[in-house]
Amino acid sequence: MSNQHALVAKTFYGLEDVLAKELEALGATNVHKANRAVYFNGDTQLMYMANYHLRTAISILKPIDTFESKDENDLYQQIKTRIEWHTLFTNKHTFSVEATVHSSVFRHSQYAILRVKDAIVDYFREKTGKRPYIDTENPDILINLHISERQCTLSFNSSGEPLFKRGYRIAPSVAPLNEVLAAGMIMLSGWQPTQHLIDPMCGSGTILIEAALLAHQLPPGIFRKKFGFETWPDFDAQLFEKITKEEKEDVDTSNFCSIIGMDVDESALTKAKLNVKNAFLHPYIHLKVADFFDYVPPFREGVVITNPPYGKRIKNDDMLDFYKRLGNKLKKDYTGFDVWIISNNLQAMKHVGLHPTKKYKLYNGPDVCTFNCYEIYAGTKKQRKQ
User: Fold this and answer.
1) Given the DSSP bridges, would you call strands 302-306 and 358-364 parallel, antiparallel or unpaired?
2) What is the per-residue DSSP string for 27-87?
3) Confidence of residue 317 (pLDDT cuts 50, 70, 90)
4) What is the DSSP letter of 369?
5) CATH number 3.40.50.300 is the correct assignment for the domain at 179-217+252-385
6) How confident is the prediction for the chain on average, in pLDDT?
7) Nearest to residue 185, comparing CAs of 206, 165, 160?
8) Which of 73, 116, 145, 206 has its CA 20 to 30 A from that of 300?
């Protein structure tokens, strides 16, 4: 049997290109993108590395089987008869099932999950006389079911808990930015550690922490207490230890610029400080209580990446005025900066009063967002080009 596996890295919409580049850099082969996912080939070591190193992946799936099914009863029969489950794990392992369903045939994902659980339990009971137990909180084996119309794919979820649960955030703010999304935004922006970075509305500090991790080439998995594959029967502890203990080249920080975060809310800054300290990144991130509209950056150029208040953190009546003031402030005090703003309020973003040079469609949880870049420069665009 080949040591190569067909694997799937799940991500958020809009981050597929970034994730594909990350996988290629890790040594993945046959990399090709899909909607919210990137397919690739790799061995067990690469699967472990993908979980440990990837910044823009939500989970790494290892497919077991793909087949077509006509209804829930047929799904039960096929899962019970197509797969020799006892060769994959034992009745002493706990398991759970998660599902993503896009189908006019399978309308209730929870019922589909129940039929998969029943099929596996009944298989073991008939095969071994004993059944494995279900643990929805901390299972040894997490099985992923994906249904697209009639096509069903079963996979082992090698990540366990989603990879955006890095482990460093102990004090979330109101409407916190997802860690994977924050990392993806930074990578889409093209920011380099040799550029000053400011998040003037930093909340609990996620953008700043992800930027510092990227700058210092620290894998996002270093804070995780557990990955799903660590409780698989074939887990290679020595191989994983080799990956986590791998010595990396020293990063030359001599030409690194500042990473600065601020927020007008003192309680938000307190949370950011706790999270930054918990990530052991406090020497590299400078935090201060400050109002964006009063703060003047001490640099003539740099990058701003921010998730300003919208919807959940500001009243709708004040939204348009807030974004208008934001745009005026950028034009006044941020000449020389590339400013990246994410928002789910397209109407409010129009009141920034600047023409975006780049735009990406992203999702922050269920919210459809635009991630816009505004190049702030003195004079006209024609003068700048000259």
Assistant:
1) unpaired
2) T-EEEEEETTEEEEEE-HHHHHHHHHH-SS-SEEEEEEEEEE-SSHHHHHHHHHHH--GGG
3) low
4) E
5) no
6) 93
7) 206
8) 206
Q: What is the pLDDT of residue 1?
A: 36
Helices (H) and strands (E) in the chain, counts: 11, 14
Query: How many other β-carbons are positioned within 10 Å of the β-carbon of residue 26?
Result: 17
5-157 topology per CATH: VC0802-like (3.30.2130)
Q: Region 45-60: what's the mean pLDDT?
A: 98
* 290 burial level (CB within 10 Å; 0-12, 13-18, 19+): middle
What 3-state DSSP class applies to 355?
coil
Could you tell me the two tokens for 366?
């269920």
Residue 136 burial (10 A CB sphere; 0-12, 13-18, 19+):
exposed
Q: Using one digit for the tens of pLDDT, what is the confidence trace for 107-122? A: 889 999 999 999 999 9
Sequence ranges of the domains in the chain: 5-157, 179-217+252-385
pLDDT at residue 362 greater than cutoff 90: yes
Question: Cβ(275)–Cβ(169) under 8 Å?
Answer: yes
pLDDT value of residue 28: 97
The reply to whether domains 5-157 and 179-217+252-385 share a CATH topology is no
What is the reported pLDDT for 211?
98
Looking at residue 3, its pLDDT comes to: 83
Phi, psi of 242 (to 5 degrees): -60, -40
